Amino acid sequence: MKIETRTVGDVTILDCSGKITLGEGTMTVRNTVRDILKANGKKIILNLGDVNYIDSSGIGELVSTYTTVTNSGGQLKLLNLTKKIHELLAITKLLTVFQVFENEQAALASFR
Amino acid sequence: MKTIANEIDVIISSALDNLDLIQTLTDCITNFMSFDEDSAHWIGMSVRETVTNAIQHGNKLDLSKKVDICFEVMEDRLSISVRDQGSGFNADEIPNPLDADNLLKPSGRGIFYIRTFMDEVEFRPLSQGGMEVHMVKRVSSN
User: Fold this and answer.
1) Which of B104, B112, B117, B118 to mutate to test the interface with A (most CBs of A within 10 A)?
2) So what's the architecture of A2-109 in CATH?
3) In chain B, what are the domains?
4) What share of chain A is helix, strand, coil (3-state, %, to 5)?
5) A102 Cβ partners below 8 Å, 6+ apart?
6) What ipTM is given for this predicted complex?
7) Residues of A with CB below 8 A from B52's CB?
8) Over its length of 112 residues, how does chain A's per-residue pLDDT go in tens digits?
9) Where do the domains of chain A lie?
């Protein structure tokens, strides 16, 4: 699993690729978001468009990250869900929790 | 019911590093059986979730304990059994991840996904100790 971080204004975008599964993948997400919060980043977008596999631990990590960011006074939004991730979030009612966007401009605009 | 291949039985030690091996084997079997891409993906995920549970929660990552994964390839279905050497659990007592109180919990969705994506799922305590999860995906339900 790989994450490339970039910023647009005061928003941090994490371009995730590969697998988010138990172990390395989930830890990569956790540590990257923790570092952003430490650096006082409050507006975070997780771009999941190139995530080709996720398991229940990966979904759990998204939930855990959402809770951590929210409890730190920040906002976490999801961008470019794959069909599979969308389905996994939908059947566990997590689409009612996350704000989800299909294009980056709309995701960025939602913070304004 | 006609059998078109023999059983494929794989025994692994309780290391999470083995998950990718089992995933690859499952993908080969579902490809051989010509499941469509979505069904193959969800079968692979269900097997991965079950083996993860067996390694992590059943055998508690004890490398001396084994997980036995048995695939039975039949003309109309794929049947998979995963056995661990843990102390077992009561599947009926697993909290519902859809309950409002559980929605933001970081864990507890694996078995829900398995039950959603497979046609049949049974949890059986083994007489010699341990737990067996038996899952079926029918070819006709593609």
Assistant:
1) B104
2) 2-Layer Sandwich (3.30)
3) 3-141 (3.30.565.10)
4) 45, 35, 25
5) A79, A80
6) 0.91
7) 22, 55, 57
8) 999 999 999 999 999 999 999 987 899 999 999 999 999 999 999 999 999 999 999 999 999 999 999 999 999 999 999 999 999 999 999 999 999 999 999 999 999 8
9) 2-109
